[in-house]
Design brief:
Elements (H helix, E strand, L loop, with lengths): L1 H43 L5 H40 L2
């Protein structure tokens, strides 16, 4: 019983660290959208050299967005597992 209590406390602590981490990841993902959109808007406004930056910006966006999406899915899966484990331990 003592082991279950410590395990539940550890899971609660790790659960509280997931929320700020997910917020940081969403913030980084939002920044990637903003960066890519700025380059597209510059190209639409005929800013010199902006059209040449689109392929590199698109590749960076796809790479970073994919990586952040994987992190968010993994954190969400861990969060779901911790919540279901805590519910099971409280029975």
């Amino acid at each position: 019983m003592r082991c279950l209590r410590y395990n539940a406390n550890f899971m609660c602590l790790s659960y509280t660290s997931f929320q700020p981490l997910m917020t940081l990841l969403f913030g980084n993902l939002t920044q990637q959208f903003v960066n890519f959109t700025q380059i597209i808007l510059q190209a639409d406004n005929n800013v010199p050299g902006a059209a040449d930056k689109i392929p590199a910006a698109a590749a960076e966006f796809r790479h970073t967005a994919g990586k952040l999406a994987i992190y968010l899915v993994c954190l969400g899966a861990c969060l779901d597992r911790h919540i279901s484990t805590l519910e099971f331990n409280s029975i």
